[in-house]
What we know:
This protein folds into two domains: 3-47; 116-296, no CATH class. The protein is 43% helix and 21% strand. The chain has helices at residues 3-8, 12-39, 44-58, 68-90, 127-139, 165-171, 178-183, 210-227, 284-296, and strands spanning 116-123, 146-156, 159-162, 189-195, 198-206, 245-249, 252-258, 266-272, 277-281.
Amino acid sequence: MNSFSSIKNGNPKASGKEAAERKINIRTMKSDMEELLKTTKPSLIQILSEEAKKETARLPRLNLAPYKNLFAVGAVSLFLALAGLASYWFFPFRAEPVPETPRKIIAAPPLFAVESARTIETGGLDRVRFLTLINDSFRERERPGTVKRIIIKVTDGAQERFATVKDFFSFYKISPPQNILAELNSEPMFFFYYGDGGTRFGMAARAKSGDRIFRDALFWEEKMALDLRPLLFSEETPQQNFIFEDKTYRNIDWRFLKLFPERDLGIAYTAFPARNVFVLTTGKESMEVVISRLFDVR
């Protein structure tokens, strides 16, 4: 007979017995668990689990408050960089052209010793200005025996340069043989010699070949007196029918055309062999002074 029928038939003893059995069964399961914990050591997994919980509890929390400003600055910087890039992309910057600064030029060293120097400047091939300045230098008074170098600077727009042999002859509308211009392609040296007999013009320049420049000057002698007359700076008309004469000074051969019987004024030229320097002057004394100074060059 089951419990329900026992209760229904009014058998209180039976129902009480069954209740006691159920109670004993529940207590037995609990006691088994308690007994298991008392008699069994905790497993390794349980120990690690407990330690992990303790370590997690001890870890400090990351405080991001001090970094908020850095994040803000970085964000603003990134924004500005992107804005600048965008403005450059859509509105490209066009820098104004910087005007070119004229390059300072320095004249070549003189080919021989001089006592003074003067620089005259002219815009392009301004013939009037050049002739005015060169005449002023000619009329200046210096101690006898003085050699003054004349540096001729030509300005073409923003560029400066020094006058060539061709430039110089162009100022005076002189047309020398092309062979002369081809041989004298280096920077020339112009000068005035102030002697007892007056002021004499001179020019010196390195030649490619001393022998060739001397030969070319020999072929030019027929027209040289007429072509170079403006370099005499004289209002007097020179004598005609004079011829060039051979001269020697300190074993250097040179040629001289004396145009005025009473004055040391004419056309003199030579090719100094040591450095192939072609020298052109308008006086005997000035030629001898230049030859001596070329010997003194070390």
